[in-house]
Amino acid sequence: MTLNVGILLALLCALTTNLGFLYKHRGAVAAPAVNWRHPLRSGIALFQSKWFAIGMGVSFGAWLLHVGAMALAPLSLVQAVVSGGLVLLAVLAERVFGFKVGGRQWIGVGCVGAGLALLAITVPAASGAHSSYSLAGMIAFEAGLLLAGTILVLFPTLGVPHEHHGVLLGTAAGILFGVSDVAVKALTGGIGHAGLIGFISPWALTAVIASLISFFACARGLQKGDAVPVITTTSAAANLTAIAGGIVVFGDPMPNSVIGIVAQSVAFLLVIFAAALTPAPLRAANQAA
Question: Is the pTM of this model over 0.90?
Answer without folding.
Answer: no
